[in-house]
Input
Amino acid sequence: MRKKKLLEHPVRMFREEELSKLPKDKGKPVVIAELFSPGEETVLVLNVYEPKILEQSNYMPSYRIFQSSATYLMQDIKNGRWRGCSWKYMLRACDQLGYFYGYLLPHILDHESEKRIAEYFGKPSEADEAFWLVYRAQGRILARKNERRKRRICEVTKEKMELVPPVGKDFLRWAEEERLYWSRFVFYRYARKKQMRGWCTCCRQEVLIERGTVRHNKKGICPNCKKQVTFIASGRKPRQMTHVAKISKLECADGKILYREFYISKDYGGIFPHTWDFKCTEEMRWYLDAEGRIESYRRCIEYGMVGKWYRSRKTYTKATILYPGGILEAVSKTPYQYCALSDYLKANPREKIYPVGYLQAYQKFPGLEYLVKARLYKIVWDLMELPGRTRNLKTGRDLRTVLEIKTKQEMELVRNNMVGLNDLRNVQKFIAGGVKLTSEELLCCFRLYGADEELLKDNQYLPLKKLTGYLASQVDRFGTGRGCRLDQKPETIENQEIDEHRRFLGLWRDFVRFMEELHYETKNEILFTPYDVHKEHDRLYKEYEDMRNKKKQAEQRRKDRKLKKYLAEEKSLLDGKIENKKFQLVVPESGAEIRREGRLLGHCVGSYTDNVLSGQCQIYFIRKKEEPEKPYYTVEWKKGRIVQCRGKKNCGYNKEMELFLKSAEKKVNRLKKFDEKAA
Ligand SMILES: [Zn+2]
Output
């Protein structure tokens, strides 16, 4: 398909007479299909209109999709751009304009369009919904394109990937035994004898176990290899027992550093002695150059291409455990030679890290080496997690300048490895914000509530130390578990304790807000520590709701008074003047009467009172003459037209009523001296 040729096809405008065919659901884009033959092949043209734009009397389509058997193209009419984007993405583009959420099906305007689409794809028109025909055809085209693309890129990368040697035995042994260090078991067969037979997965030996010395699923020591293992009674082993992990490895590859990431799994079998299947699959390769740039490759998992490598843009991964072997060889003769990564690893074995992030951080900030040698591991970790953080470091020769440390206290924190960069900044922010706590207390505070800036506001009502003490007493008294004080060590605080503290903090914050809104006195600290914050919260909430309801009711009364006055004028103008033999038009008396009508007829006219008051529209009742009090139909008059007429539960009306409405419309306009042209 040639764009130039496609442009010769005239833009199909929406026609005014087609407006009546629009779906009730205003969110749906509307489609009209046409056929067009630019060359030998006929092209299906789908014109997409957006109802919101049609409403503004703009009858241009928003998009045109040209569909041939081999490809498709989309023209964005508004900005004249072409995109190879599918029907699905077109819908998403409409979605961005805020019309609907997700993939709502478009509305195919008329039967001819449906027929054209169906015939184009050679299907009987009733057999399928037209939309899905296009959708599936595009899916097939896209899949073919993707496969071709992938095949092409795999061809390109093949040679380069084959240069990488397979991993060695040492690495595999490390992966199986060291990396999954917690996956060590002694499976034993429970017996009523003095000694039970067992099998250790660590030393791979049969062992004899004294009965009564071990328990199922509990840790212990293997009697043979003396390593820590978990004892599992063979009969109680779960059917599926698989342990997985990610590991990585650094190598050198002609001047660059090669980072390889693997997925490993250990799957324990069904029958005693439960030996296992170990699998190690390489998933990713990154080449890191001297400037810190990454060239990334991934392995296909698609059927038919499993294991082939393709170039990928992804340069993010989770933290992995790095194989300690070969790091020095990998970085030697590169600018990363003195990066001290292996020193870091030695000091923090079995820790998940970001090896590439580490090297990138070093490339941007060579001082990383000294941070590792000074054992400031937390700060190093923050830098390797997001190497961009090196931007926040200042240049200088000593730690104080580089990290912008201002006080002795902060220096202590950094030296003792208690804070990373983030926490250091938070500590500084809170101290500047007037919080009077030691840094240890602050760290405990962050662990409990998160380094949330709202705490600074809380601190103004009640100093954080008192607040925590108070919340702890609430947890002790009314919550589950134990309350925490700020003199605790942050690592010793458990998640459940954190949840409870945050729950009570939430209640307390609401309680304080209600106090403010209700204009209670807020100077005295004692008032902020009620005996039961939950109860006090509920009490104030009720009070607060009452206050809001009162305000709302007063507002409603004021509006109703105004509305009544307005309706009285209307009544004297119209009441009793518009009728025929059967029906009469009645002007409502008050807002309450309009709401009652809505309630009795089961429609939503009650919500129109504000619009009536602002003069946007007018509501009239139509009653049968023999039952003038009984609600029958309700009409909305707007700018000289009766735009809606609704009966019980939004039902429509018959010919008789239609005639009455027509004459009523004229009479209302005459009596109100309404001039349509002036409006
Ligand atoms: Zn053992």
Notes: Residues 3-143 form one domain.
